[in-house]
Amino acid sequence: MKIFQNFDLKERNTLGLRANTKYYTEPESVEELKAILSDDSYNEIPKMVMGEGSNILFTGDYTGLIIHPSIKDIRITDEDADYIYLRAGAGVVWDKLVEFAVDRGWGGIENLSSIPGCVGAAPVQNIGAYGAEAKDTIFRVEYLTFEGLVDKTLSCEECRFGYRDSIFKRELKGRGVITYVTFRLSKIPAINAGYEDVKQAMKGVSEPTIFQVREAISSIRAKKLPDPAVVGNAGSFFKNPVVNKSLALQLKESYQDLKLFPAGENEYKLPAAWLIDKCGFKGSRTGNVGVHANQALVLLAYEGATGEELINLSKTIIKTVKERFNVDIEPEVNIC
Ligand code: EPU
């Protein structure tokens, strides 16, 4: 099992920020992972799990061990008349799993097409897009604890999923490594084309298939979201804020074009992109960082950008949105 020392992370984070980690490893199985973690040299140092690096902002070097799980097998573990249970290794590239499922006609994750990252990260932040969330299909999550190297399994309910949230961002943060995720996919897929952009793309298609939904969503994303190979970015930089009903309705009265999304009792989710856009940041650039011209929720890191520049830009945006709308927005990316 190879452990790299003073490993360069520039190519391993989609923001393309310069940073090194003291140790880096890519275990290909649970056994390899256990072998590394039972080595005393790594007992006392900080440890971090990193997938494809599509949701992380490095503000400096990392002084511990970064584990990039590379467990890549996909297997059917069970099936009945309606469902297929698919167990995928944490290191499977997320969109490869979506492709695998859609190619076989198994529905449930097609709306999550083209989301960057890997399977192991999907439950952590409960990835979501176009009216679907990972939690809708996650059946079981397996992880290995750092302490005692115990194999554990959580049901979907035990993962306590919320909007861009789960137990892995809370009580279990930094406590272990997700190794496998089992998805329950439908053999008789229900098409979910209600999200405005998808509805538009599907106009004129009388009975869309999951393959067509996947194609449409991949093309919407390609138009709206920048390619990290061209300019550094981590997708949505901020979460959409959830505010109380009275503030939401008050804002709606002043701004008719503001869309409100009901989010539980007496609360609404507001599009952070709209708030940032209205403050005039969309398409702007300061030094080596900026705000994407097609989606104001995405911050850009041009060549030479530093984590500090991005943090400063995000602080300016947070402050301006607060002053103008009295709404608090917070980063979605992990700052390290
Ligand atoms: N809008 C603007 N200006 C913009 C962009 C959007 O005013 O520059 C407004 C529009 O009114 C639009 C609304 O904001 O109706 C919502 O925009 P969009 O449909 O693009 O979705 P979003 O809420 O900005 C979320 C996810 C995305 C996901 C899309 C599509 C979060 C933090 N982001 O963005 O996820 O692709 O929905 O479902 O929830 C990601 O997490 O990295 C990501 C890209």
Molecular structure report:
- There is one protein chain.
- This protein is α+β, with helices and mostly antiparallel strands.
- It has three domains: 3-67, 2-Layer Sandwich (Uridine Diphospho-n-acetylenolpyruvylglucosamine Reductase, domain 2); 74-186, Uridine Diphospho-n-acetylenolpyruvylglucosamine Reductase, domain 3 (2-Layer Sandwich), CATH 3.30.465.10; 232-335, UDP-N-acetylenolpyruvoylglucosamine reductase, C-terminal domain (Uridine Diphospho-n-acetylenolpyruvylglucosamine Reductase, domain 1, Alpha-Beta Complex).
- 22% of the residues lie in helices and 26% in strands.
- The chain has seven helices and 20 strands.
- It has a five-stranded antiparallel β-sheet, with no helix packed on it.
- β17 and β18 (289-291) form a beta hairpin.
- Bound molecules: uridine-diphosphate-2(N-acetylglucosaminyl) butyric acid (EPU).
- Uridine-diphosphate-2(N-acetylglucosaminyl) butyric acid (EPU) binds next to β13 and α6.
Rounded mean pLDDT is 96
Main sheet makeup: 5 strands, antiparallel
Helix and strand run: EEHEEEEEHEEEEEHHEEHEEHEEEHE
**C-alpha termini separation:** 26 Å
The proportion of strand residues reads 25-35%
**Low-pLDDT residue intervals, each spanning 5 or more residues:** none
CATH architecture term of the largest domain: 2-Layer Sandwich
**What is the total domain count?**
3
Using only C-alpha atoms, the radius of gyration works out to 20 Å
CATH fold topology of the largest domain: Uridine Diphospho-n-acetylenolpyruvylglucosamine Reductase, domain 3
Q: List the strand order in the largest sheet.
A: 6-7-12-10-11
Helix residue percentage: 10-25%
Instruction: Tell the overall outline.
Output: globular
Structural class: alpha+beta
**Care to count the β-strands?**
20
Using the coordinates above, name the CATH class of the largest domain.
Alpha Beta
**Helix segment tally:** 7
**Which ligands are bound?**
uridine-diphosphate-2(N-acetylglucosaminyl) butyric acid
